[in-house]
């Protein structure tokens, strides 16, 4: 007896099934102007084919993206814009994108330089500098796989005629042949050669950064090493372009997010999209350097995904020299203090403690290679001490929290083997949500709907079940879940979670502890949201005082407390106090980070807004201008903070009767938002209104209407 | 109309051991299913091929003794057991894990029974659909199949489809209902054969 025959008996169900079935052999896509020759690899983002361009006869790699990766208009626009940027990148170590478009089947594709080589991770296994048998010459290694991404599937006899290995220089894109036979271990792979290889990778990344492209998904499988040993970085910006928008990102993510997880920066793991910038790529470069030097990842030996995330967020990685000694084998370890310092600086948890650009990192490696003093300073003893205290700091991202919950739950599942299907589906839902959250680029701008709440409710449930023996983690998860409820305006649920986190933390750490302060601070924010200014003030002041006692006056967390308290005072209309607190925040950040820093700029911005409310226009303007300048220098050209600055400064100028000066700023603000957001997004509307007001202020004629007054 | 070898006959021929064509047909029928399940449990393409090999080896070992007994459970659940066993064996055999693989592994392990069941169920349906589509390919003309593909599978507009393939609107609708009815019948037949 068939349990369920409805799926083929009901025509509608049958059509649904037909639409999702994968044909046994999908026909190769048709791309105008190219012969699509062969599938190189199928992956999460799409399928990569080998192709030949009709006009030039050159071989190319054609990446055809999954349609589902960009079903929405926003996603499509973003993709096209990102592709435009990427097409502009010309660098010997970046895989050039020649062309893009839609196949006959309407699927988006990219035509790229065809690089024959192996991804870096495989290259490390095959010919890395520290194989267990050092110094072997002439031994054969497994046949090199033809690969544009990871490995070719299936056939072996596609491109046979052997070619001479080139002595040096880049593999040209039109060469599609290689010998399948043995190859000798690369003799040049002494540590210095590895560092030089690394500087070339940095150079490629830096080139892209200077043109406004952040990779976001740098990892060894995205770096191809050609036969001459030269690196080629693939898929710039594609992670964002293909994943960034709409609700259909899951498809891509299920396949990809784990690979990405191991190379994600702490800010990415926390799911804090506004914090992702070029320095996130610097972090990934740090991991790659670590891998090159030691043969393993700093957090890679973690026993589980949960451990990995926790470790990446909290643990200071062991210096490469130590990791190298532990690993043993290989060429004589030559990792000295300076090299350790460079790697650890690139891997700092806080972006502001890292190298501020890929180029800075490259320069320091070059200093090292030349035997010059390096710029990186070893972390001060005080900093290391604080680091130790913070070792068990909250895993503060919703994403990380849910990851822990889900993985914990999964482990439970293997014990409780016979759970009902519906429960398994719930677990899957959480997992999908987690993946979505982990990689969503702009969650603040995504729809928050009922499913998010449901998933949070689930997470609450599972946190209790799965983490009963892990009070520290449970506390962190509850704090983050509480914070997420807060973002959704579900205050009662938020309070329950945060209170619970406070209880757990007090029981675990005692009354005086940075984590306790964290919970206190959250309670304060929650009450502020609810307009309960008095109790909010009490919580926040308690948190601030505790942080000062435990962490000293000069600590980023003290800055957060000051800032929050300042904003509370501002909301409560106590502007003089607000101004004082925000001023202190700014001073503190100047001491901590200097003037050229995103957090300093944020403090300037806040203080400027407070001053504006007090009618102190000249200093407000000055601060806004300083913040804007810093943001333009440091942030990605389309970072939302930049248009926030433009809007604030523009509106301030309009209020001061200087509409003519304001107009270009507001116009830029609107343009930026229109590019990034859907047309009916509140921030777009706000920018439109600001611009309207500016024009109505009378001095500037609306451009389209051609009004004739002077 | 070519009658595909029934499932029972196919197994009998394979059990005989000497019929290479039967094994090839088995691969044609179930290869994609087995690879897809392996892939969805997190194996790489090459490992999926290995899983298929392992399954074939295992079948060649047990089929001579295999007695088809509907009371004891269907072939599909038997095949499922073999496939999953092969998948997990492949995981164990893989070389020491890199960090990334370790992460991937964790999530694979957390895949629970119900999830595996769902994957298997989905892939099994796809298998039936592919099987039935093969018959459709023989029985319907290429333009009609293409029109079906465009209108039904890709969800294009009926007018557009009619125009593109030089058909009347009525013809497009007819093609849809004829092919769907035929598919439904074919799958029913396959499912019944399966026992």
Short overview:
The complex is a heterodimer of chains A (710) and B (195). Chain A is an alpha+beta fold and 710 residues long. Chain A has 28 helices and 8 strands.
What does this structure look like?
The complex is a heterodimer of chains A (710) and B (195). Chain A is α+β, with helices and mostly antiparallel strands. Among the domains of chain A are: 80 residues, Phosphorylase Kinase, domain 1 (2-Layer Sandwich), CATH 3.30.200.20; 216 residues, Orthogonal Bundle (Transferase(Phosphotransferase), domain 1); 116 residues, no CATH class. Helix content of chain A is 55%, strand content 6%. In chain A, the strands form two sheets. Chain A has a five-stranded antiparallel β-sheet with strand order 1-2-3-5-4, with helices on one face. In chain A, strands 6-7-8 form a three-stranded antiparallel β-sheet. The longest helix of chain A is centred in the first third of the chain and has 20 residues. Chain B is an all-alpha fold. Chain B has a domain of 112 residues: Orthogonal Bundle (Rna Polymerase Sigma Factor, Chain: A), CATH 1.10.1740. Chain B has nine helices and no strands. The longest helix of chain B is centred in the middle third of the chain and has 27 residues.
* CATH class categorisation of the domain at 119-131 and 188-390 in chain A: Mainly Alpha
Spatially, the strands of the biggest sheet of chain A line up as 1-2-3-5-4
Strands of chain B, count: 0
Main β-sheet of chain B: number of strands, strand sense, barrel status? none
CATH topology of the domain at 1-112 in chain B: Rna Polymerase Sigma Factor, Chain: A
Number of helices of chain B: 9
Radius of gyration of chain B: 20 Å
CATH domain fold name of the domain at 119-131 and 188-390 in chain A: Transferase(Phosphotransferase), domain 1
Mean pLDDT across residues of chain A:
71
Provide the structure class of chain A: alpha+beta
- From the alpha-carbon coordinates, what is the Rg of chain A to the nearest angstrom? 27 Å
Assembly annotation? heterodimer
Would you identify the CATH architecture of the domain at 1-112 in chain B? Answer: Orthogonal Bundle
Q: Can you tell me the residue ranges of chain B where pLDDT is under 50 for at least 5 consecutive residues?
A: 95-111
Backbone shape of chain A: globular
- The share of residues in helices of chain A is 40-55%
